[in-house]
Write a structure and sequence with these properties.
Beta-Lactamase, about 40% helix, Arc Repressor Mutant, subunit A, 2 domains, about 375 residues, alpha+beta
């Protein structure tokens, strides 16, 4: 053991995460490491040791100064491979350049918004394993380009202290599942949809009457209609979710007649039926002309995932029974007004419930509630 490594190990072992809390704990860790391994910025990504999922946003230390403004899209975690891939390398410390080329790094949002602005170029990745060899997270260290790359002695020192930090992290409770970052992007949803089976196809005319329906769509529509018939007698053959998508789509077109010339409008809704997630997408099949009957609406019904255990997830949160009921109705694609009707409560009461649910699930929109729950169940391959 080299003298520098010995001094650093002694300092780290004296730190008590129980007294400091995780933020101050890592402030002290980064401060101690910097005396032996100079770096400009350090990011700590905490993981759940059982699932290897990243937890919350990264903790950032910028050489004693406040970190720049960042958000979930540019925090840098997606710049690196998944934790499982990092562990497969069988080494505790490796260079960031082993995972990216200058070209794909330069195109990453984190490079444009954080790295480039701070002249950060070289990176090291340090895996943190506890006494049972479970991964508690990883740290990325950054240096400016004009400071040169980390040398082999730096890798050796950081590899030596990794088990010490990992053992300390065992004393810090892992946040509950509801704290895991789980927003799903539009791009991710599209990738999932592209892996779907043949979609159900439904075509409606201007008045909401069915012009065409294929076999897959008919089977699902019959089941949904039996469960939640259309609130309009004129459209009794349509389930609630399709009827409201149809009316919302017509309203979107009415409000944006000029936009139709340059952009094709779409309206999306998510529905969960018998453990299967369906995405309903309304598209304008034919632009509206002088004759109102010439406007047709095509609704694609696309299977996204199956085997969804929504009850299991909802009950694992700290939502009240009433809030759980609201979530289940939101997952059926119902509006606040429809939720209020189903639960025999006021629409403003529903809005209050939704606000509290968003706060508890750490999201900011109704879509975020659905996305968070679906993200627990959608396939990753």
């Amino acid at each position: 053991m080299k003298s520098g490594q010995k001094r650093l190990a002694a300092r780290l072992k004296k730190l008590n995460p129980d007294d400091l809390g995780i933020d101050f704990f890592f402030n002290e860790i980064f401060s101690a490491i910097q005396r032996e391994v100079p770096f400009r910025a350090g990011w700590f990504f905490q993981t759940n040791p059982e699932t290897l999922q990243l937890i919350q946003s990264p903790l950032q230390i910028w050489n004693g100064v406040a970190p720049p403004e960042t958000n979930g899209s540019n925090s840098g975690s997606s710049l690196f491979p998944p934790v499982r891939q990092l562990l497969q390398r069988g080494t505790l410390c490796l260079r960031g350049g082993e995972w990216w080329t200058p070209s794909n790094r330069a195109s990453h949002p984190a490079y444009q918004t954080v790295l480039k602005q701070n002249q950060l170029h070289f990176a090291l990745i340090l895996i943190l394993l506890d006494g049972e060899k479970k991964c508690r997270g990883y740290i990325t260290f950054w240096k400016e380009k004009n400071k040169g790359d980390f040398d082999e002695a730096d890798l050796e020192t950081l590899s030596f202290i990794s088990p010490i930090i990992g053992a300390q992290l065992e004393r810090i409770p892992v946040p509950q599942k509801s704290s895991i970052v789980s927003e799903i992007s539009e791009e991710e949803l599209h990738k999932l949809v592209r892996r779907r089976a043949q979609p159900g196809i439904l075509i409606l005319n201007q008045d909401g009457h069915i012009l065409y329906v294929n076999h897959d769509a008919k089977n699902l529509l019959d089941a949904l209609t039996a469960k939640s018939p259309s609130p309009s007698p004129q459209h009794g053959s349509l389930p609630q979710i399709v009827y409201h998508l149809y009316t919302q789509f017509k309203e979107t077109i009415r409000k944006g007649q000029d936009a139709i010339k340059s952009e094709m409008p779409t309206v999306n809704r998510v529905c969960i039926h018998e453990g299967i997630v369906f995405l309903f997408r309304g598209l304008l099949l034919q632009k509206q002309g002088s004759n109102r009957d010439t406007m047709h609406i095509m609704i694609l019904i696309e299977k996204v995932s199956q085997g969804v255990r929504i009850d299991q997830f909802v009950e694992s949160t700290n939502l009240t029974k009433r809030e759980q009921a609201v979530v289940r109705l939101l997952l059926e694609g119902k509006t606040n007004k429809e939720v209020a009707s189903c639960m025999s409560i006021g629409e403003y009461t529903v809005k209050d419930h939704v606000k509290r649910i968003m706060k508890k699930l750490n999201v900011t929109t109704r879509a975020g509630i659905v996305a968070k729950i679906l993200h627990q169940h959608l396939p990753t391959h």
